[in-house]
UniProtKB/TrEMBL annotation:
Domain called ABC transporter: residue spans: 20-247
Protein's organism: Raineyella antarctica
Superkingdom of origin organism: Bacteria
GO molecular function: ATP binding; ATP hydrolysis activity; transmembrane transporter activity
Family per record: Belongs to the ABC transporter superfamily.
PROSITE patterns per record: ABC_TRANSPORTER_2
Keyword tags: ATP-binding, Nucleotide-binding, Transport
Name this protein carries in UniProt: Putative ABC transport system ATP-binding protein
GO cellular component: membrane protein complex
Amino acid sequence: METGGRLVTMSEKTAEPAHVSVEGVSRHFGAGESRVEVLHDVSFAVDRGACCVIVGASGSGKSTLLNAIGGLDSPDAGTIHVAGQEVTSLSPRGLTRYRRQHVGFVFQFYNLVPDLTVRENIQVTAQLVRRPLDIDDLLRHLGMYEHRLKFPAQLSGGQQQRCAIARALVKGSDVLLCDEPTGALDRHTSQQMLELLDDVHRRYRATLVLVTHNEAITAMADQVIELRDGLIVRNETNPHPRAAGDLDW
């Protein structure tokens, strides 16, 4: 892969099509004097099963880019392909189907339903697909089985984030999109959460795209993309990703 905006559509290692391909994507908000260019001709590709960390300061366009990949926002220009499907050409109904079938979201502030138990929060998402993962097996793997009947208010921040990860995975999602998943956690819990994300994306063979402002997290990635003022200023592979537990900041 190269920096400078060239789209790589084939993996150099496997000669297989990239799982996520972004080409020439631009996005602005507002009009006239209030117009803000958030993304400028952004192009990159992520291999299937890779961990890609998108890093940048607040306002660099990270979350806007993630939302576009997830079908939550539409760019002004450019195309996005996921698993060979052009996301940017889908109708509203098609986008709903795409999100159900392919994408799991993990947000900074969990977005759990407060009046539902842990298991019920996951069950709501499981009902969106025909063949969800086994909820109890998933909860056991994430260390949440003993908390399955608790409500979100009875959980720690780390436990709520584990529940959010289970909810994202239960559909069998092949793309896991994480928007500052450690932003609301302390350092120790953040490292535990990163270890968990790294483990589950490899165990369930999901492509992980994680946005963060924390440069230290890039050391665990297979691919690092840096955004600055809506432009890609770095796009590089990491031949020797570090274990999440070995990160230091």
